[in-house]
Amino acid sequence: xxxxxxxxxxxxxxxxxxxxxxxxxxxxxxxxxxxxxxxxxxxxxxxxxxxxxxxxxxxxxxxxxxxxxxxxxxxxxxxxxxxxxxxxxxxxxxxxxxxxxxxxx
Length: 105
Known about the structure:
Layout: H1 8-21, H2 24-32, H3 36-48, H4 53-64, H5 77-94
Helix pairs in contact: 3-5, 4-5
């Protein structure tokens, strides 16, 4: 028998369950300690990439290899990739979207 397909409601339920595991103070501490570069990447994710890290990472990696990319970011591409991967892990581990907690410009 095939595995059931996850719906957006299922994903939202998983996200809510994970979010319940992280104390608000821990989330606040994480967000408050994000550098301006981290916060800019969160804003770009929310505003230009539909809230997803993957297209942004693809753009950065494509730029490094000289392939077409959507958005031209600052010169520190490798640093941005590392920042994104770190924030992506935090979001996945805790079931949160940092764009919901970072003040966007």
